Amino acid sequence: MTNKRLLFVYTRLSTFVKGDLDILEKEYKVSTFCVDNTTKIKQLFAIIRLFIYLIFNTNKFDIIYTWFADYHSFLPVLFAKLFGKRSYVVIGGYDVCRIKSLKYGSFVNPVRGFMAKYSMNKATLNLCVSKHVEHVVRCVARKSKRELLYNGISFIYAHNPKENTVLSVAISSTQQSFYIKGIDRYIEVARAAEDLKFTIVGLDKTNLSHIIGEVPENLEIIPKVPHKELAEYYAKSKVYCQLSRSESFAVALAEAMYHNCVPVIANVGGMPEVAGDYGYIVSGNDSAETVMAIRSALNLPESGKYRERVVEKFTTEVRAKALLNILDRAL
To answer: 71-83 vs 40-57: helix axis angle to the nearest 10?
Structure first.
């Protein structure tokens, strides 16, 4: 462990954020600052507190590490620049996205977009979770410095025997996430293949009943479940299908491949990077095309090659080694 001090700024301690925090705490003296953005008023007061904190504490740190470029990254990057400290921003995807019709992405809001762009241009380095994200950062923040750093996944392995079923995982309780995750597309695919069995895990059927409509008999909708239980769904499914309209990396895809599911995915964002040369890539908009790909995937023999790819490229151990190497360069 070094004597270097690191400030870790985040908005929510999600699995990925917690994963990086665990990695960094083993090597650095870490202090954390959470910017609560659950409501606009909470976010405003949190940013005011962050401003005051940075005035008195920035000089104590060697590195400022922020998850996502957004409102909360502007001040840490600014103060790091003023005090001659290194700043790193993890770019997760939402922060470089703009889908106006769904009001999705930081760049839908011009002020938010300005702060994200400033953060990316002025940070010492942007850590991009996929080549797709790296490409977008290069386009929207031309002065930025970037490096690819894939997400790292922690796995729970289940031993259920494979069944001839299709699975999708999408945590969704809002209309926005329903369409971003392409759940409407997945439901249409199930309607178009009545002889096949489909499952989706993570969908809030009660809140979204008005847009789900009549559920096909061959589609089982499961609410959000604990990760251990989710692993059992991965283990027993032969095919994993994800038809998102925007996806920076696709964690569930990597988890499904770890359980040797054959991927059938939309040609969007970082999903083709995760799948590599395996599985089937479809447009996402054509149900007949997707059904054809799923039928082909169901006929493939079982193979361990999907897990091998994920273990080689997308584990927490792989990310930890790469992340610490990046931070050590300037020590």
So the answer is: 10
Q: What CATH number does residue 266 fall under? A: 3.40.50.2000
The residues, any chain, with a CB within 8 Å of residue 301's CB and separated by 6 or more, are none
Burial 17-52 (b: 16+ CB within 10 A, else e): bebbbebbeebbebeebbbebeeeeebeebbeebee
Paired tokens of 241: 């299908």
Each residue's pLDDT tens digit, 19-40: 999 999 999 999 999 999 989 9
Residue pair 94/68 in contact by the 8 Å Cβ criterion: yes
Range of the domain at 72: 5-152+315-328
Q: 44-84: per-residue pLDDT in tens?
A: 999 999 999 999 999 999 999 999 999 999 999 999 999 99
Q: What's 152's DSSP letter?
A: -
Which are the contacts of 265, defined by CB distance < 8 A and separation ≥ 6?
241, 242, 243, 250, 253, 271, 272, 275, 279, 280, 281, 282
Verify that 219 and 121 share a domain, yes or no: no
